[in-house]
Design a protein that fits this description.
The protein is α/β, with parallel strands linked by helices. Helices cover 38% and strands 22% of the residues. The longest helix is centred in the C-terminal third of the chain and has 17 residues. The chain folds into 2 domains: 228 residues, Rossmann fold; 68 residues, 2-Layer Sandwich (Alpha-Beta Plaits). Helix 6 links the parallel strand 7 and strand 8. The protein is elongated. The chain has a 6-stranded mixed beta sheet with strand order 6-7-8-3-9-10, sandwiched between helices.
């Protein structure tokens, strides 16, 4: 993808700006429910997404993430609950909501037989845009998504990453202020994922609001301002990524020494720091932010004064993986392996 310095920028009308939107949350949901059975669907979801931000919906397969997106995009009708999208009542004013939003679903919505330019034209006409507007926006979007050289090629010749970028471009043809992205990078190679991340960041920086579902927790950590975890159709936690990670544990410093004797000498020097030793490794908690940097320096100085030196040190922060496994109660793959091994030994 081109560097931002040489990249064609979207004009104000294609930046997802919020100047025409009311000064209210972009998405406001209360008690949203859509049940398929007694245990499947979405139940009593409360959600608020500020304008110009990214909120990620996370959870296991079948948790209700796609159902939530389809409800908010007015593709499904809720059993009960209230949704306001861009200040409009989604139940009473669906057309006004539809005029504000763009949707990229899990499956590509583009026509494989048409060209990239042809797909943009088709979706532009579906939105009743005049031809002059379609041509100008298509040109800008194809350049912005690095698809200009493939504009006249059939989409069936595109790579997976190119198709997903075209999918996102198509969702922007009508200048949406709010974007729903349902697992937009599933199946993409790392380079294509990074390219789409950069595009999403640019759109939000220019004023767009994004509601994102993803199976990649690192993706949510990299993009989202706020995260809502749902499981079995119900919200189980929400907050900023840093807040959620802080709930499951502290940052840990691990010092690895040449011998257990050196490690014990270091542990004794750090006794007031809640340091614990396991073999040749000493581990202790670190505070966050600037305090953590000061504490790290203090630890290294104390160990140095004790006359021993670690062969290496690692700072391990809690991750969204830790949050996911703790909140959902699912076992990590390594824990499942250990559990199965223990069962085998008892047989």
């Amino acid at each position: 993808m081109c560097s931002s310095a040489g990249r064609t920028r979207l004009p104000v009308s294609l930046r997802g700006g919020t100047s025409s939107m009311p000064a209210v949350p972009a998405i406001s949901v209360a008690g949203l429910t859509k049940s398929y059975t007694e245990t499947t669907g979405l139940f009593d979801l409360d959600l608020e997404v500020p304008a110009g931000s990214v909120t990620a919906l996370l959870g296991p397969n079948g948790a209700g993430k796609t159902t939530a997106v389809r409800l908010l995009a007015t593709l499904l009708k809720p059993d009960r609950g209230h949704m306001r999208i861009g200040g409009y009542d989604a139940a009473r004013q669906p057309r006004e909501v539809q005029a504000l939003i763009g949707l990229t679903g899990q499956s590509a919505s583009v026509d494989m037989k048409l060209t990239g330019k042809g797909n943009l034209a088709m979706f532009g006409r579906l939105h009743h845009l005049p031809w002059r507007t379609i041509r100008e926006r298509s040109r800008l979007l194809l350049e912005r998504f690095d698809l200009a050289t493939a504009a006249n090629k059939p989409v069936q010749s595109y790579s997976g990453g190119m198709r997903r970028k075209l999918d996102l471009a198509v969702s922007l043809i009508a200048e949406p202020s709010i974007l729903f992205l349902d697992e937009p990078t599933t199946g993409l190679d790392p380079a294509s994922r990074q390219a789409l991340w950069e595009i999403i960041r640019d759109l939000v920086a220019q004023g767009a609001t994004v509601l994102l579902t993803t199976q990649y927790l690192d993706e949510a950590d990299a993009l989202a301002d706020r995260i809502t975890f749902i499981d079995a159709g119900r919200r189980i936690a929400q907050g900023a990524p840093a807040e959620l990670k802080a709930q499951v544990g502290q940052t840990q410093l691990r010092l690895t020494f040449r011998s257990t004797g050196d490690a014990e000498t270091a542990r004794a020097a750090l006794e007031r720091s809640a340091a614990v030793r396991s073999g040749a490794v000493v581990q202790l908690p670190l505070p966050g932010g600037r305090d953590g940097l000061d504490a790290l320096k203090t630890v290294i100085d104390a160990v140095d004064r004790a006359g021993v030196s670690p062969e290496r040190y690692d700072v391990q922060e809690p991750t969204l993986n830790d949050v996911y496994f703790q909140l959902t109660g699912h076992q990590r793959p390594d824990e499942e392996t250990k559990k199965n091994s223990a069962k085998e030994k008892t047989r």
